[in-house]
Amino acid sequence: MLCIMGETRWRFSAALRLSKAEMYMLPPILLGVAALAYFAYQVVGFLGIGLLGVLVGFIAVQVDLDKEGTIGVGVLHAQQMMARQNASPSERAAHKAAMQSYGRPLLITKIRPLLITKIISAALVILGFGGFFFL
User: Fold this and answer.
1) Hey, CA dihedral for 25, 124, 61, 105, is it positive or negative?
2) How crowded is residue 130: how many other Cβ atoms within 10 Å of its Cβ?
3) Could you report the per-residue pLDDT of 54-93, keeping only the tens digit for each?
């Protein structure tokens, strides 16, 4: 039983590790978000941080909705469907690979990059509007 627990722990810790590319990309992304939040705070105050969070959240939700196709105006949807039908097989494969990369699991709990973006957005909204209304 102890051997099984050790193996399970090893698999779990291996699943929690980020790849080298993710480890190199995470600090600049977090620094960029912190710099944007600081700039928004300097310009508008806590309201700017909240609006930045709303903007990031809207972008993340739009990318999440566009995985399968455009949602919204019928003409735009029809144009996108025609473009996909007329695309070469290599273009279709590239589009499919790009859409799958958005949903690629990072951790054993299936946390995806878009979910991380939505969490960062929610944190910015809570910090910004909470600071605006309560401070």
Assistant:
1) positive
2) 13
3) 999 999 888 777 766 555 556 676 777 777 788 888 888 8
